[in-house]
Amino acid sequence: MKKTLITAFALSASLAYAQQKETDRFQQYQPIWENGTLAQKDSLASVLLSEVKTYKTEAEYRTTLNLLHALGHEDQMASIEAVAKKKFPKGSLTRDAYLHEVYYKLETTSEKEKAYRELLKKWPATKFPGDELTYDYAIATLAGSYAKDGNASKATSYLSEMKERFWRGNGYLPVAQTLLAAGDTSSATPILKTVLDDAYYYITLPEEEKDNKARFASMGYAGSMSTYVNILVNQGKYTEALGLIEKALQIAPEQGDALSNVYYKSLMATGRKLEAYNILTKLYTKGQFNVEPDLKAVYADLNGSMQGYEGFNARLKEDLVKSIQDHIKEMATFKIAPAFELLNLKGEKVSLASLKGKVVVLDFWATWCQPCIRSFPGMQAAQAEYANDKDVQFLFINTWERDKEYKKNVVSFIEKNNYPFEVLYDDQKDAVTGQVMAAKYGVEGIPAKFIIDKEGNIRYFLTGSSPNVDYIKMEMKELIESAKKPYKG
């Protein structure tokens, strides 16, 4: 037994050293793959390709594949990957290819379960110490499939196999939400409680112990709390719900916005109407107009009638517009927008030059980007408002896709959701720098939106998103109308 433990430790230490060495090699070339010229990138790619025959470890192959991707030489990756997979048939590259090319594309739960067992048979998790997250992703996918089938027992059983506590909430929460949507509250509740307890554990760690994993896990606290408290609210357990919310606000006050909806409902139900009123007015002045029925009810209770409500409501909307106007000042910039000519879903060329004389809204997004997708209903509403304005053009720039069949996936996504968007593929590389359009615009994270004026100047740049349709619609209106006006410096 002792010998086995020593061997396992040595393997783990050896892998950790190899991974660190390759991470260092990747970072060594960062100036080139990030800011180098096309000639420099091509030169580095040639050097890497000439070195491949000397590689002795899978880590070396993986680093070179990552570098070729960063350099924009994806067309040369397949042959190298094929050599690596043949040389290391039981290695992580072959395993990852199996997951992405087979496992994640299966549709039925029975197929996924069979493929998962094959995964564990060919590539046991014990052979890849420190790589538990890869297996947790696979487990979460299978558990989610069982939840959609209504098999809560199997879904819960597979969830229990997950190893990475900091990440498992990402597998647990979707399963719980699926079960809740199907009306299975009894199965969903303990799953949510686990997510909540995990997030609470990481959020309450001493500051000196909080690493990136802890910060990541803490981010799920408001979401799991909101879902869990919603169950209590729906069950009429308002006092219990209030206790949990106020405990959450004590240890994580920064997550107050995410808990606002369940908080005001609990306050209303327990008779604390003035506090509920204060939260409701804040939500309304952030563009959450869907709370207006509750706002009216509390207003009437506190004032004894609806007298004066219309004026009150108008002032709230004025405050919202003023808040948005102040906010967009922080996004203001002024620089010439890089030129582009990209293909749309029909294969037609669309260039920035052809749109001169229009205000152009660019929205960089990807099919895997959930914040991008959450903002789409709001962007659709904003586009609809300008449907008859020939001086405004919305363009949705699809970028950073990870799948080889990205074009097919993009078309499917747009058609499935019936979005009336003009989508352009960001896959044309600059002849000098080798950069795609997102890089030329300085995009470091998506969603990213640019408002370009009629003369071709970037007037506003914003990142992040909101699921709030009304707020996005109002914010876009302020940005577009401001960009229509001459720049004053």
TrEMBL record:
TPR repeats lie at residues 222-255. Keywords: Signal, TPR repeat. SUPFAM superfamilies: Thioredoxin-like, TPR-like. The keyword Signal applies. Residues 331-481 form the Thioredoxin domain. The keyword Signal applies. Pfam families: AhpC-TSA. Coiled coil: none annotated. InterPro entries: AhpC/TSA, Thioredoxin-like_sf, Thioredoxin_domain, Thioredoxin_ResA/DsbE_sf, TPR-like_helical_dom_sf, TPR_rpt. Residues 1-18 form the signal peptide. PROSITE patterns: THIOREDOXIN_2, TPR. PANTHER family: PROTEIN DIPZ (PTHR42852:SF13), THIOL:DISULFIDE INTERCHANGE PROTEIN DSBE (PTHR42852). This is Redoxin domain-containing protein. It comes from Sphingobacterium tabacisoli.
